[in-house]
Amino acid sequence: VFDDEEESKLSYTEIYQEYQALVEKLLEDYLKEVGINEEKFQEAFSSPLAKTHTSQAILQTVLAAEDFRLFKKMMVQKNIEMQLQAIRIIKETNGVLPDCLTEGSDVFSEIEQEEMKILREVLRKSKEEYEIEQERKRTEE
Question: What start-end ranges are recorded for coiled-coil regions in this protein (predicted)?
C-alpha cells in the first residue's frame, strides 16, 4: 500500500494504528514471558547500549510504533524490498524479465551509453570554459 509520495494517505493512518496495537500487544506479551516489567524495559530501552547503530536497527520496529515518519519510511523500504524480490523470482523462474518490466527502465543500449559519455564530456568542457571565463573576468576587475 505504501509508496514514496510525500503526502500520506488515510489508509496509512489506519494501518499505522493497527501496527501500533500489534507491537504493543506483542511487546507486552514478550515482557511478561521473560519476566521484565515495563519500567525495566524503559530503562534498558534508553540505555547507551540501546543507542548503538546495531541496536537501533533491531529496535526499529518498536520505535516505528511511536513515530509515524519512521513507520512510513520502514514500510516504503519493505515495499521496495518486496518488489525487488518479486523481480528476482520472475527472473530466476523465466531466465529473463518480461518486456513490461524492462521498458522505460534505466537499461541503456550501447548507443545510448556512448551518447551519455559524449554528453558528459561536452558538459565538462563547457564547465571548464565557463570557469576560465569567470576567472578572466575576476582578474580584469
Answer: 109-140
